[in-house]
Structure prediction request, 247 residues.
Amino acid sequence: MKFMAIIPARYASTRFPGKPLAVLGGKTVIQRVYEQVSSLLDEVYVATDDERIFQAVESFGGRAVMTRTDHKSGTDRIEEAAEKIGSDADVIINVQGDEPFIQPSQIETLMHLFDAPETQIGTLGKRFETIEGVENPNSPKIVTDNRGFALYFSRSPIPYVRGIDRNLWLEAYPFLKHLGIYAYRREVLREVTQLPQGRLEKAESLEQLRWLENGYRIRVGLTDVETVGIDTPEDLQRAEEFLAQQA
Prediction:
């Protein structure tokens, strides 16, 4: 089975404009993401709508593809990029452009989900370590069935643990945090980007609910690796501190 990674990266982020080009430990964020992924996969591209990001990727020896500016999601952007590239990959991996600490082991876990032929889409989850994390609506939660397929994603704490003090919930149930890395079988990526928004996605503002609502099967791999995503300038500072700890 052949895998290819595409990293969607746009300049016009609401909370942190230009964050792919922000410097982290002497390298741009997008270069760090690219290098982490390239340490495992040979076929890696950045999909962007901005000439500055395109030039930055090419300047460090990476491969980039220009895409339209009107995409509503990273999934739509990587579908356009995959069509332009014309790769014969069986599975396309979508690595967020603001995850400079994504680990090869996490990508390997994602890839192995496709050993099962019924896996159409793969993603990752990590056990929450604090109840504050569970209650944070910016950290989506996952519940899965006994085979690891997602039943639902939510910004609310799910499941509700009845009859137990909220401070003891983590002892009662292994709450699972969703990490925003995906992989799709090539034909599934084509299909899901043609789907209209559904009621669940509109309610929670979680794109993956569109896929569940239309019957697609999302398998969840487990990781215990902590990463630091960058959404704001404050996150960049935390990432600098995290990087210093790794040295």
Observations:
- The first helix runs from residue 29 to 38.
